[in-house]
Amino acid sequence: MAKYMMTLAGALALAAGSYSTVILAQASKPAMAVSFVTEQPSGEWLAHVMFGAVVQNPSGEVIGDVNDLVFTPAGQINTVVLGIGGVLGIGEKNVGIPYSALSFKSGPDGGRLIVVALSKDELKLAPAFKATEKTTYDAMKDKAIALGKTASEKAGQFKDQAMKQVEDMTTVTPKKP
User: Fold this and answer.
1) Which of 8, 115, 127, 143 is most buried, by the most CB atoms less than 10 A from its CB?
2) pLDDT tens profile 31-87
3) Distance of CA 7 to the CA centre of its chain
4) CATH number of the domain to which 91 belongs
5) CA atoms of 79 and 169, how far apart (whole Å)
């Protein structure tokens, strides 16, 4: 993984142009040149800046926001996952669209605008995007939900047992003479 990351960083730095070259050597491997990027190239975006960015249609209507990016094994953005509907992320539906369907423009204030030629209705009818890979956060959230369900079931069982004990204690059986 580290080798892949160094190779990826080197390739990105060479492509970007703002880099410095350092020779790295590991005890059992020959030295390799790695180019480090020292500054974000002008006109390029950081991925985390794109997350949450508003997406509009050509008429300026806000249709969603960027929730995630899907990369190919070669490191190219292939799919953009848009969150549509809902309020503050609650009830939101994720829809995957090809990255090539997006266009990027400058807004009136000089900020970046992300535009896709889709209406809210088209996105509502689109199939939901299903991620097959989980982040650590997703895995922990799933575990917390499972633990919550187990705790709820146990609480229900304890309540039923307590109710039965109360019923047994309050039920008086007549004594036989």
Assistant:
1) 115
2) 778 888 899 888 788 888 888 889 999 998 999 999 999 999 998 999 999 999 877
3) 25
4) 2.30.30.240
5) 64
Contact assessment for residue 158 and residue 151, using Cβ atoms and an 8 Å cutoff:
no
Structural domain including 20 reads 2-37
Cβ proximity of 71 and 84 under 8 Å: no
pLDDT in the model for residue 55:
93
Q: Which residues pair with 83 in a beta bridge?
A: 65, 94
Residues 140-161: b if buried by 16+ CB within 10 A, e if exposed: eeeeeeeeeeeeeeeeeeeeee
pLDDT value for 3: 42
CA–CA separation, 42 vs 112, rounded Å? Answer: 13
* Residue pair 116/103 in contact by the 8 Å Cβ criterion: yes
Query: How much of the chain exceeds pLDDT 70, in percent?
Result: 79
Could you tell me if residue 165 is inside a domain?
A: no
Give pLDDT, residue 135: 81
Q: What is the pTM of this model?
A: 0.60
Residue 151 to residue 28: CA distance in whole angstroms: 51
At position 137, the amino acid (one-letter code) is Y
